[in-house]
Amino acid sequence: MKQMQRGEWTEATEKERVEEIRELIADLSIPITINSGTSTSSVVFEVALPKEKTEILHHLDRVIGQFNEKTEAALRRWRHSMLSV
Question: What's the pTM?
Answer without folding.
Answer: 0.82
